[in-house]
C-alpha cells in the first residue's frame, strides 16, 4: 500500500501511527532527509566501518608497495637520501588512500543496494522524485488490514492512498 | 529563554588566586636564579594563552560569517576568553624588557658581524617590534571590545541590527587577524631562530591557535554544564564542538607535515638547520609527541560517532591537546633560547600562574553578562539543535 503526503508534518504523524500499529513499513521516500524518519526506520549502516577498514588496508598497501619498489626491488640513490623516504611516501599514501576508500565504498554500496549503471529504476510513485512524500507499506505482514490502514493514513493527512 | 547568570563559586576564585600566587613566586625566584630560562617561560606562557584568546575570537567571527545557528547559545564563552587579550597586551609589552634574553637579532655584537641579521634589521629591531605589538594589540582589543559591546546591546534591545553589525565586524576581524597574527607569530616565535625561515610557519601557528582555542571553549562549556549551567547542551552540540577539534587537528597535522616534509626533502642547509638543532634526544621525542598529541589522538579518538558526542571521551582529548600545545611551543622556543631541555618546577609554576590568571579573567567576564545571549536571533535554533 502506498500513501502520498503533501508535507513533512503529516507524513511524520502518519509514520508514527503506522509504526505504532505494528505494520511493517517498507520504505519512505522524501524530497529531503527527515530526522524522525531516519531514526524511526531504525536502519543501521555499517558502511562507515567498511570505509575505515578500506582506508586502513589502502594506506598499508600503498606504503608497502612503495617500500617494496623503493627499498627492496629497485633501490636508487636520490641525493644521498635513505631508500626509505618515508615522509615523501606519505603524500602519495594520503591521496591514494582517499581514492581507494571512495571507489571501494562506492562498489560496496552498489553491491549491497543492488544498483548498477543501466538498471531500470523502481519508483514507488513518480511524484516521490518531485515534491511529494511517499510512504510504502508492506502488505504481507499479519497485522496488515487494508481498510483500517487506509483510514488511518487518510485521517493523518494523506492526499492519496492506493 | 530565561536569563541565566554565572556566579563564580568562592572556592574557585580562591583557587585561581592561589594559582596566580604560585606563578608570581615562580617568576620571582626564576628571575633571580636563571633569568634567561624565566624569560623563555614568560614568552611561552604568554603566547600559549594569547593564542587561546585569539582562537576564541576567531571562533565567534566564523560563527557569524557562516551564520551558524547551533553555537549561538554558547557565544559568551569565547567572548569571555577573548577578554584576556588586553591582559596579554600588557604582558607582551613587558616582554620587550627581556628581548635581549630571547632574540639573537637584538644583540648589538652579532648585528655588527652577521650579514643576514643586518639584512633583516630594518624589520627585526626592538623599536619597530614595539610599534607592531602596539598596533596588533590595539586592533585586536578594539575589534573584540566592539563585538562584545554589540552582543551586550543585543541582549537589551534585540532585533536584527546588532547581528548584522556583528557579522560586519567579524568580516573585518578575520582579515585583520589573518595578517596580524601571522606577523605576530613570525615576530615572537620564528625570529627566535633568526637565520631560519618557513613560509608555512605563520599559518601553522594560526591553525594551532584556532585548534586549541576551540578545545578550550569546549572544555569550558562542558565544565559549565557539569555545574548546572547551559542546560540546553545536548549531544548534537557536543558533536559540533568535536567537529571543530577533529577538523582542525587534521589541518594542524597537514600544515605541520607539509612544513617538515618540504624542508626535509629540499634539504637546503639554511632551512634544515631548524630541525637539525632539534634532532637529538629530548627534542626528537617532543617532535613525535607533539604530532601524537595534537593530531593522532584527536584524529583516532574523535572519529567514531559514539566518542565524538561523549564528554567522557572529549575531556581527555582536550587535556591531551592542552599538553600538546605546550609541547609544540616548548619544541620551538627552548632549543633557540635555553638550548638544554630543562623542565622543572619553574615551568610548572609559571604555567599554573598563567592558567590561574586566564581562568580568573574568563570567570569574571562570564559573570558580567547573561550566560546565554537571550536575544540572539539564532538562539531558538541553537536550543533545538539536533541532527
UniProtKB/TrEMBL annotation, chain A:
InterPro entries: ActD. Keywords: Membrane, Transmembrane, Transmembrane helix. The chain crosses the membrane at residues 51-74, 86-109. The keyword Protein transport does not apply. The keyword Ubl conjugation does not apply. This is DUF3341 domain-containing protein. The lineage of its organism: Bacteria, Pseudomonadati, Bacteroidota, Bacteroidia, Marinilabiliales.
TrEMBL record, chain B:
The keyword Transmembrane helix applies. Keywords: Membrane, Transmembrane, Transmembrane helix. The keyword Transmembrane helix applies. The chain crosses the membrane at residues 12-32, 47-70, 82-103, 123-143, 172-190, 196-224, 244-265, 285-303, 312-331, 343-366. It comes from the Bacteria. PANTHER family: PTHR43044, QUINOL:CYTOCHROME C OXIDOREDUCTASE QUINONE-BINDING SUBUNIT 2 (PTHR43044:SF1). This is Quinol:cytochrome C oxidoreductase. It comes from Gaoshiqia sediminis.
Amino acid at each position: 500500500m502506498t500513501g502520498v503526503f503533501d508535507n513533512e508534518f503529516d507524513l511524520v504523524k502518519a509514520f508514527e501511527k503506522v509504526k505504532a500499529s505494528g505494520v511493517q513499513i517498507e520504505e519512505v521516500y522524501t524530497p529531503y532527509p527527515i530526522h524522525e524518519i531516519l531514526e524511526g526506520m531504525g536502519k543501521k549502516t555499517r558502511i562507515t566501518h567498511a570505509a575505515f577498514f578500506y582506508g586502513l588496508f589502502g594506506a598499508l598497501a600503498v606504503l608497502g608497495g612503495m617500500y617494496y619498489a623503493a627499498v627492496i626491488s629497485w633501490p636508487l640513490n636520490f641525493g644521498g637520501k635513505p631508500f626509505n623516504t618515508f615522509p615523501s611516501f606519505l603524500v602519495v599514501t594520503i591521496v591514494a588512500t582517499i581514492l581507494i576508500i571512495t571507489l571501494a565504498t562506492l562498489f560496496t554500496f552498489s553491491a549491497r543496494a543492488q544498483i548498477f549503471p543501466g538498471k531500470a529504476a523502481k519508483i514507488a510513485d513518480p511524484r516521490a522524485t518531485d515534491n511529494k512524500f511517499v510512504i510504502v507499506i508492506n502488505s504481507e505482514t499479519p497485522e496488515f488490514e487494508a481498510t483500517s490502514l487506509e483510514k488511518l493514513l487518510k485521517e493523518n493527512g494523506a492526499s492519496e492512498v492506493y | 529563554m530565561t536569563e541565566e547568570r554565572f556566579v563564580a563559586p568562592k572556592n574557585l576564585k580562591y583557587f585561581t588566586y592561589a594559582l596566580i600566587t604560585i606563578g608570581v613566586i615562580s617568576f620571582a625566584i626564576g628571575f633571580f636564579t636563571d633569568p634567561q630560562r624565566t624569560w623563555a617561560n614568560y614568552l611561552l606562557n604568554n603566547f600559549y594563552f594569547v593564542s587561546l584568546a585569539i582562537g576564541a575570537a576567531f571562533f565567534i567571527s566564523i560563527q557569524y560569517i557562516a551564520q551558524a545557528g547551533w553555537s549561538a547559545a554558547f557565544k559568551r564563552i569565547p567572548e569571555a576568553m577573548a577578554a584576556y587579550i588586553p591582559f596579554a597586551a600588557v604582558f607582551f609589552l613587558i616582554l620587550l624588557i627581556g628581548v635581549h634574553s630571547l632574540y639573537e637579532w637584538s644583540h648589538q655584537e652579532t648585528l655588527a658581524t652577521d650579514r643576514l641579521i643586518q639584512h633583516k634589521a630594518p624589520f627585526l629591531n626592538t623599536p619597530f617590534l614595539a610599534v607592531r605589538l602596539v598596533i596588533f594589540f590595539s586592533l585586536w582589543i578594539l575589534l573584540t571590545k566592539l563585538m562584545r559591546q554589540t552582543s551586550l546591546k543585543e541582549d537589551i534591545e534585540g532585533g536584527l541590527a546588532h547581528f548584522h553589525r556583528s557579522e560586519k565586524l567579524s568580516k573585518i576581524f578575520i582579515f585583520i587577524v589573518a595578517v596580524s597574527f601571522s606577523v605576530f607569530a613570525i615576530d615572537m616565535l620564528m625570529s627566535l631562530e633568526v637565520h631560519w625561515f618557513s613560509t608555512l610557519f605563520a599559518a601553522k601557528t594560526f591553525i594551532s591557535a584556532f585548534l586549541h582555542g576551540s578545545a578550550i571553549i569546549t572544555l569550558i562549556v562542558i565544565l559549565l554544564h557539569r555545574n548546572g549551567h547551559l542546560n540546553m547542551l545536548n549531544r548534537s552540540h557536543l558533536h559540533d564542538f568535536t567537529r571543530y577539534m577533529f577538523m582542525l587537528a587534521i589541518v594542524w597535522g597537514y600544515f605541520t607535515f607539509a612544513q617538515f616534509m618540504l624542508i626535509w626533502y629540499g634539504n637546503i642547509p639554511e632551512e634544515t638547520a631548524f630541525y637539525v638543532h632539534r634532532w637529538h634526544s629530548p627534542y626528537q621525542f617532543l617532535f613525535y609527541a607533539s604530532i601524537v598529541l595534537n593530531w593522532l589522538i584527536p584524529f583516532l579518538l574523535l572519529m567514531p560517532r559514539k566518542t565524538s558526542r561523549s564528554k567522557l571521551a572529549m575531556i581527555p582529548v582536550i587535556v591531551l591537546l592542552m599538553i600538546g600545545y605546550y609541547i609544540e611551543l616548548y619544541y620551538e622556543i627552548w632549543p633557540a633560547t635555553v638550548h638544554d631541555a630543562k623542565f622543572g618546577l619553574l615551568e610548572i609554576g609559571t604555567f599554573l600562574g598563567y592558567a590561574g590568571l586566564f581562568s580568573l579573567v574568563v570567570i569574571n567576564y562570564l559573570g558580567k553578562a547573561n550566560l546565554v545571549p537571550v536575544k540572539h536571533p539564532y538562539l531558538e535554533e541553537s536550543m533545538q539543535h539536533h541532527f
